[in-house]
Amino acid sequence: MAFRQSERSQIMFLPPSIEDYVPQDDPVRAYDAFVDTMNWKELGIVADEHQAGNPAYHPKTMLKILVYGYSYGIRSSCKLERATTRRSRSFGGTTLSP
């Protein structure tokens, strides 16, 4: 069985911020800014932070993912999950899977 090798002289595994992975001209930044400027109360979206059970993803995060998917023509939730997983891995981030 092969063992994973480590590099002891490595300074850090990932950059200090996910912002370092996303280019400044990437459309994802526009989607992020667009969703962040929305007034959730005017839209009738209420997030219950005290609900029981597993913690849910924030509605803003979910809307950002939907906007990303629609902009690339991805309508299937399974395809959207694969696309965001692949994209986040290419940036070294985490996936939406728990």
How would you describe the overall organization of this protein?
The protein has 98 residues and is mostly helical. It has a domain at 24-42 and 57-98. 42% of the residues lie in helices and 0% in strands. The chain contains 4 helices and no strands. It has helices spanning 27-36, 40-43, 59-71, 77-90. Helix 1 (27-36) crosses helix 3 (59-71). The relative contact order is 0.12.
Annotate the secondary structure layout.
Elements lengths: L26 H10 L3 H4 L15 H13 L5 H14 L8
Short description:
The chain is mainly alpha-helical and 98 residues long.
Keywords:
98 residues, mainly alpha, 4 helices, 42% helix, disordered C terminus
What proportion strand?
A: under 5%
Number of strands: 0
Q: How far apart are the termini?
A: 28 Å
Rg estimate, integer Å = 17 Å
Number of helices: 4
Mean model confidence by pLDDT: 75
Shape: extended
Helices and strands, in N-to-C order?
HHHH
By helix and strand content, what is the structural category? mainly alpha
